[in-house]
Amino acid sequence: MNLLSTKLKSVLAKIAAGDGLITVLTGAGISAESGIPTFRGKEGYWTIGSAEYHPQDMATFAMFGEQPLEVWRWYLYRRGVCRRAQPNAGHLALAALEKTFGDRFLLITQNVDGLHLRAGNSLRRTYQIHGNIDFMRCADECTDEIFPLPDGFWLTRKTDPLPENAESVLRCPHCGGVTRPHVLWFDEYYDETHYRFNSSLRAANRTALLVVVGSSGATNLPLQVAISVEQVGGVIVDVNVQRNPFSVFAEDTGGFFVQSSAAKALPEIVSALGAAI
Length: 277
Known about the structure:
The chain is an alpha/beta fold. The chain has a single domain (6-272), classed as Rossmann fold (3-Layer(aba) Sandwich). It is built from 13 helices and eleven strands. The chain has a six-stranded parallel β-sheet with strand order 5-4-1-9-10-11, with helices on both faces. A three-stranded antiparallel β-sheet has the order 7-6-8, covered by helices on one side. Helix 6 runs parallel beside helix 13 (262-272) and helix 10 (197-204) runs parallel beside helix 11 (220-231). 44% of the residues are buried.
């Protein structure tokens, strides 16, 4: 399959021969191809008693303050969905891209599922700007440290109760207080300590190529990254199954829109950049 225009291939080859940063920004679209729902549709609803809640209700610090165990139960169900999923061809292509370009490569991901790391991307070059569902941290902020959740500590069905050992597992090892999922909630802000806010913007200012994959452009930091890349003369390539704010911005600023799934388009883009898959 040939999804890339001759012009785009030429641009990619020129960038690969240079020395600028090659940055990839991924959103929910790449994970959806591995079978992970976005949780904004029917799959995301959560029932507590007779009330039905949306993800925008559950994924908030306010809800955690009112119903901490129910929020944990929702996230452990989400974690089960994520852990049963496997990296797809798009994830594997990005792992190959990092292997080829080393410190010229950076991955910024909005996804909390950990699939990029499982595909082979390194933690050092992967900025998880919305956190990672496999980790927790102290809800009282006694420390900035994050702690891994045990293997197998998740729910398979929405109706499953919390695991019997939940009370002991979901405790901060330092102060003994309750922990929270290590994710960015709707009523919270990006920061550097947990979500690499400043680091992402600094990287954008060194980026020669930004490949945006499966993101709707609904959150602030990804949009700021794209704007910063354009301001320093970087090329933006948007990969998505449908038009979105990133595709419009890319084309308006001399970049490219590749209307395709990540699993189909990324291997071609990575190949055009000279990386072996």
